[in-house]
Specification:
Structural class: alpha+beta
Shape: rod-shaped
Strand order of the largest sheet: 1-4-3-2
Number of helices: 5
Strand content: 5-15%
Largest sheet: 4 strands, mixed
Distance between the termini: 111 Å
Helix content: 40-55%
Length: 149
């Protein structure tokens, strides 16, 4: 078993500009992967210098992501060090979750309104067509049927 480099939280903080992140007590330097990350570079940059475990797990990363992550491993967290308050993980902030929920709700309401407008327009057209058909049929029957003869 090879010894792994032990890194303190203070060192992680010093390498915040290098985009070091911590996931499950392992330190990674994904700086060369920023532009290739499917979620974009901001996702990683926003967690730089911090514990990103909860974000990583919440996003549902699978085996492929975990294998890719190993390419950027720097070391493991020294368990005798403690993270500063700003470094502690907590997943996506509640405000961001609420904002995402509002965006989804607005999108659904917009689609629903467009659907109602389509239905209303379609029904009006059908009503006009039916009225024209009725008028044509009425005039046909009135002119071509002998009544009481």
């Amino acid at each position: 078993m090879s010894s792994q480099r032990k890194i303190t939280w203070e060192e992680v903080a010093k390498n915040q500009n290098s985009n070091w992140i911590v996931i499950e007590d392992t330190v990674y330097d994904p700086s060369t992967y920023l532009d290739s990350h499917p979620g974009g570079p901001a996702v990683l940059q926003n967690r730089a210098g911090k514990d990103a475990t909860q974000d990583f797990l919440d996003t549902g990363h699978g085996a492929v992501a975990r294998r890719k992550l190993e390419e950027f491993k720097v070391g493991i967290i020294d368990q005798s060090s403690q993270p500063a308050q700003w470094q502690k993980g907590g997943g996506t902030p509640v405000n961001a979750q609420k904002f995402a929920l509002i965006v989804v709700a607005v999108a659904i309401m917009t689609l629903f309104c467009k659907f109602l407008c389509f239905c209303q327009t379609h029904l009006r057209k059908n009503k006009k067509i039916r009225k024209k058909e009725y008028n044509l049929l009425s005039s046909f029957f009135q002119s071509n049927l002998p009544l009481g003869q």
